[in-house]
Amino acid sequence: MFAQRIDHIGVAVKGLDEAIKLYRDVLGMKLEGIHHVKEQKVKVASFVMDGETRIELLEPTEAGSPVARFIKKHGEGIHHIALKVKGIEERLEELPKKGLRLVDKKARVGVGGARIAFIHPKSTGNVLLELCEQP
Fold first, then answer.
1. Running DSSP on this structure, what letter comes out for residue 104?
2. Global confidence as pTM
3. Nearest to residue 61, comparing CAs of 79, 76, 31, 39?
4. What contacts 58, CB < 8 A, 6 or more positions away?
5. Tens digits of residue pLDDT in 4-56
6. Ordered domains of the chain (ranges, CATH)
7. Up-side HSE of residue 134: CA atoms within 13 Å toward CB?
8. For 87, how many CA atoms within 13 A lie in the half-sphere containing its CB?
């Protein structure tokens, strides 16, 4: 099996503080933590739902960041779906052979030390998919 389950759903937001109030205070989700991912130029609030599946709120920290560009073009909303995988490097080798275009040819570090890589939405029906291998 390629993916084990959905690891998280990434939601682009303009303001993390307001979005946290909705997910924590109104929807009653547990705030797992807030992280700065400097490489991706985002501040991330992680919410855990069932002990495993998470929602990550993504606030851009720079105007030219990928999430800032996404918000400018599409507005706030679902940015990506992350799939939990094992052997991320092997997955990255096999996907182009199956006709998928990669954003990342090599895994990089994401929230909590996870190894992540993105599949280009032009090859997945306009859905940005993230591969996520937890440490």
1. -
2. 0.91
3. 39
4. 10, 11, 12, 13, 42, 43, 44, 67, 79
5. 899 999 999 999 999 999 999 999 999 999 999 998 899 999 999 887 789 99
6. 5-133 (3.10.180.10)
7. 12
8. 9
